[in-house]
Design goal:
The complex is a heterodimer of chains A (478) and B (325).
Chain A: H1 6-22, H2 27-46, H3 50-69, H4 73-110, H5 128-143, H6 153-161, H7 174-182, H8 189-222, H9 229-260, H10 278-284, H11 287-298, H12 308-326, H13 330-348, H14 368-389, H15 393-403, H16 417-432, H17 449-466
Helix pairs in contact in A: 1-2, 2-6, 3-4, 3-5, 3-6, 4-5, 6-7, 8-9, 8-16, 8-17, 9-14, 9-15, 11-12, 12-13, 13-14, 14-15
Chain B: H1 2-30, H2 46-55, E1 62-66, H3 68-71, H4 76-83, E2 88-90, H5 98-111, E3 116-121, H6 135-143, H7 150-153, H8 157-162, H9 164-172, H10 199-203, H11 213-228, E4 232-237, H12 250-266, E5 270-273, H13 292-324
Parallel strand pairs in B: 1-2, 1-3, 3-4, 4-5
Helix pairs in contact in B: 4-13, 5-6, 5-11, 11-12
The chains are: A mainly alpha (478), B alpha/beta (325).
């Protein structure tokens, strides 16, 4: 079920009503409703893959319980290994098998010994990269005795499959989300209203910004060889806003929806295009994944401690693995590698934590230095986005070569005024609200009701009239 | 909770009223005729969307499939009088390649296995054009008791309103190039007295696109599917207008024709090549699409050839049986 579908518009009020009016007095019943609704939400796409979530949840639930009573370190390791094997095994089979099979076959062909790679004709279950990481974090945290394993099977299964964030995150930690399923939730109207605003803003970013940019981006990247440097640059800029609008829009809808049910999800995006360096960008982009890799890969590898060589190695590992998480394609690996190259100098010169505050704090506009830093960082991300979006490495290099050619100084081939205007609206709204969680958070500003409602209405009309068809969320494919 | 629900309800009413007001003003300004709101946007192709709604709950034993070369070039009355049955449906759709036509056939056959399938096509349908539609949805759309519900599935407000004036034009005039004025069987019949829509359209040979092998594989699948299900399958090769043939690479056409004939005949089906004869420009609206009279002559030609060929085949088969005896 898509957030931007009529099915979800019917589903959400029904679950909301049952949650607060029918099951509110009984916590287990309420969690069971969440679980049932989540499975319905997921099964709407393909009910057969529900078995994967159920199996994955069951394994981690049992591993958690066994870890509680097991003190033998060797056996504890074995239990953790079981959880990792099951979760990463599913991910490997569905997401990476074909990639590795074909890459091995290519490698043998290069060595003059061609072999046939047998492909698996399987579809990637939606959200598998998200929920496997979420449930895996539970087993690792229990193993490290950071959290107590749960005996409440309903709460645990609801934690793994909580529908707002099931298919595209934020990737939650058990320590943050699971305890919320143990507590009785009270309806908080302030939270719920803010949740509705966040949903509205998320829909605007997805339907108005991302989907409109997608039309141009799809054309450009489908036949990049026939476009000038100027069009390709514009297409890349539009892709930067498409992926931001799409993914942060999804996260806003997920967080806002969860708030309607009295549940707080972690923040996933913090206005990343206002970053002044790449390190800041990565603290603001897909926060739940970045911190997951930091806590479960980077720090166990030694983090930024140890020799310079260790720091370089760990930085490359975390970025390349992060790229690989997005998909089984060399383009994603190149994207990760490039970001590592951007990040490394900052870390080696200990400049990676210079910009931790909000840009232009207490000022309306940034100064020239801040503006320059933001534009430079954005330009770096653009080059990386080319690799992310291109179908092959060759196409990425072809696009970059064309952008850095004289055709950059020609007029773009397609009309783009509407998209630029929409992006400008997004930038202004988010810049004004950059200290807040989202652009429609009005908790500290007193705005008359009719003005607020008028603004919401303008956004709704924009969604209805400026929306550009119904497109899937990009991150569903990951 | 009570105040939250009250405010949500109030805002919803306010929002609904505002939307109704805006839409009403828009309808008034644009002079939109509400009878001509386009069909649900199943795909980014008005011809496909319109055909899906037209074919809803229509069960036919004899069907035509293919692109606009089936939609516009097959003359329904000629087919029905030959078949001696009104139980006929033209599923031709602008922009379909052969692969798309195979998908359409398979999906239609899930609802009703046809007895006769006619594919009218030419070189232009074997390029890399494609209509992106959800194949799994065809069955649901064609059998839905309330196809209007798909407006909720594809809630593209702006499209339905902004496209309606054009849709009215193509649904009411047989002089529009993208006309969708159907006869009772779903075929488009262009008016006989046509002005040239546009010199570029008239001059375009439409054969510059590279051919895609996937379409030959698609034709093989159609032929195989027909054989497997005992369907009488006939391929009509649609001709180019006389005035343009000298601009087309004849070798390319010959090669294409021999491949197509080979595939169709391999499974024992009938292949009719109407390029054997030349076709006057006055029968056309562009390089490949006939006017009403052109379509009638073309269909009659193909039917005659088909009857001759199929009778000859039957005679030969009969002779063979006698000899073997």
């Amino acid at each position: 079920m898509l957030f931007n579908s009529i099915e979800f518009a019917i589903f959400l009020p029904i679950v909301f009503a049952l949650y607060w009016f029918v099951t509110q007095r009984n916590l287990t019943l309420q969690n069971t409703l969440i679980l049932g609704a989540s499975y319905l939400f997921y099964g709407w796409w393909d009910w057969r893959f529900l078995s994967l979530i159920i199996f994955s949840s069951a394994v981690d639930y049992l591993v958690g319980l066994r870890l509680l009573t097991q003190n033998d370190q060797r056996k504890r390791k074995l239990l953790l290994f079981t959880s990792i094997l099951v979760n990463i095994g599913f991910l490997g089979l569905f997401k990476y098998y074909n990639f590795f099979a074909e890459s091995f076959a290519d490698a043998f062909t290069l060595m003059g010994k061609p072999i046939e790679a047998s492909r698996l004709n399987i579809v990637l279950p939606v959200g598998i990269s998200f929920y496997t990481f979420q449930t895996l974090s539970y087993s690792i945290d229990v193993y490290k005795r950071k959290i107590q394993p749960t005996r409440d099977i309903i709460a645990f299964f609801a934690f793994v499959s909580f529908f707002p964030q099931l298919v595209a995150g934020p990737i939650e930690r058990a320590s943050h989300l699971l305890p919320q399923f143990y507590r009785k939730r009270e309806f908080d109207p302030t939270k719920a209203v803010d949740g509705m605003r966040q949903i509205l803003w998320g829909l605007f970013k997805k339907i108005v910004i991302a989907d409109n940019c997608a039309v141009y981006v799809n054309d450009i990247f489908a036949s990049s060889e026939s476009y000038s440097g100027a069009s390709l640059l514009l297409g890349t800029i539009f892709f930067a806003f498409q992926i931001y609008g799409d993914f942060s829009g999804y996260s806003d809808i997920a967080i806002g929806t969860a708030r309607l049910f009295g549940i707080d999800l972690m923040r996933n995006f913090a206005f990343p295009y206002f970053s002044r360096d790449i390190a800041e960008f990565w603290r603001r982009w897909h926060i739940s994944l970045s911190t997951w890799f930091r806590d479960y890969v980077y720090i166990p590898l030694g983090g930024s401690r140890g020799s310079t060589w260790m720091k370089i190695r760990n930085t490359f590992i975390i970025f390349v693995v992060s790229g690989f998480w997005h998909g089984a394609n060399w383009t994603f690996l190149a994207w990760g590698f490039l970001n590592a190259c951007y990040f490394l100098p900052l870390m080696l010169w200990k400049k990676n934590r210079v910009n931790t505050d909000t840009v232009a704090e207490n000022r309306v506009l940034p100064n020239f230095r801040e503006l320059g830093a933001m534009l430079f960082t954005f330009a770096l991300t653009l080059i990386a986005w080319i690799f992310f979006r291109a179908a092959t490495l060759q196409q990425a290099f072809q696009i970059i070569a064309e952008i850095f050619s004289p055709s950059l100084f020609s007029l773009p081939d397609l009309l783009f005024v509407k998209e630029v205007l929409l992006i400008a609206i997004l930038i202004v709204a988010e810049w004004v609200q950059r200290n807040k969680q989202h652009a429609l958070q009005f908790d500290t500003i007193r705005i008359p009701r009719m003005v607020r409602w008028g603004l919401y209405q303008v956004i709704i009309v924009a969604i209805l009239f400026w929306g550009s068809g119904k497109q899937e969320f990009i991150y569903f494919q990951f | 909770m009570r105040s939250f629900l009250k405010n949500t309800l109030l805002f919803s009413l306010f929002s609904l009223a505002a939307i109704v007001a805006i839409v009403s003003v828009y309808i008034k300004i644009q002079n939109i005729d509400l009878k001509f709101i386009p069909p649900p946007r199943f795909a980014n192709n008005i011809s496909f969307n319109d055909k899906m709604v037209f074919a809803n709950h229509k069960v036919a034993d004899h069907i035509s499939i293919g692109s606009s070369l089936a939609l516009c070039n097959i003359h329904s009355r000629t087919i029905t009088s030959t078949l001696g049955s009104d139980n006929y449906l033209n599923l031709g759709t602008w922009g379909f390649n052969i692969g798309d036509s195979f998908t359409m056939l398979k999906k239609y056959a899930e609802i009703n296995m046809p007895k006769t399938v006619i594919l009218s096509s030419s070189l232009v349908d074997f390029g890399n054009q494609k209509v992106f539609f959800n194949a799994d949805e065809i069955h649901t759309i064609l059998t839905s008791n309330f196809p209007g519900r798909f407006y909720f599935k594809y809630p593209e407000f702006r499209y339905y309103l902004s496209f309606s004036n054009h849709y009215k034009k193509i649904k009411t005039s047989d002089k529009e190039y993208d006309s969708l004025v159907y006869d009772e069987y779903g075929a488009v019949c262009y008016a006989d007295k046509m002005d040239v829509f546009d010199q570029a359209i008239w001059d375009d040979t439409k054969v510059d696109e590279p051919l895609d092998n996937m379409n030959y594989a698609g034709l093989d699948s159609i032929s195989n599917f027909a054989k497997k299900h005992n369907i009488r399958f006939v391929f009509f090769q649609s001709p180019f207008r006389e005035g343009i043939t000298n601009k087309i690479d004849q070798e390319k056409i010959k090669t294409h024709t021999s491949i197509v004939a080979g595939i169709v005949q391999k499974y024992g089906h009938t292949f009719i090549d109407s390029n054997e004869k030349s076709w006057a420009d006055s029968l056309y609206v562009d390089a490949t699409h006939f006017t009403w009279t052109g379509a009638k002559l073309y269909t009659e030609f193909c039917i005659d050839k088909m009857n001759t060929l199929e009778n000859t085949d039957a005679d030969q088969l009969g002779t063979l049986i006698i000899k073997n005896k």
